[in-house]
Design goal:
By secondary structure, this protein is mostly helical. It has one domain. The protein is 55% helix and 0% strand. The protein contains 3 helices and no strands. The longest helix is centred in the middle third of the chain and has 18 residues. Keywords: DNA-directed RNA polymerase, Nucleotidyltransferase, Transcription, Transferase. One of its GO terms (biological process) is DNA-templated transcription. Promotes RNA polymerase assembly. Latches the N- and C-terminal regions of the beta' subunit thereby facilitating its interaction with the beta and alpha subunits. It catalyses: RNA(n) + a ribonucleoside 5'-triphosphate = RNA(n+1) + diphosphate.
Length: 64
């Protein structure tokens, strides 16, 4: 079973796996309460998956 989006594609956007996990978890908690996904028609039904899709679509990022 392949998860979408792939970790390789995500690490092209955010290098650190730790940062990737932390950012997506925080965003998932935010979406759970606010119910506002920045990606139209997300493939994932779960909030963490939606947050990862936002990262891949460059709607969610980390300032360095």
């Amino acid at each position: 079973m392949m998860l979408e989006p792939s970790i390789d594609a995500l690490q092209g956007k955010i290098k650190s796996k730790y940062t990737l996990v932390t950012l997506s978890a925080r965003r998932a908690r935010e979406m759970r309460h606010a119910k506002n996904c920045q990606v139209e028609n997300p493939k994932s039904e779960k909030y963490v998956g939606m947050a990862l899709e936002e990262i891949l679509a460059e709607k969610l990022f980390v300032k360095e």
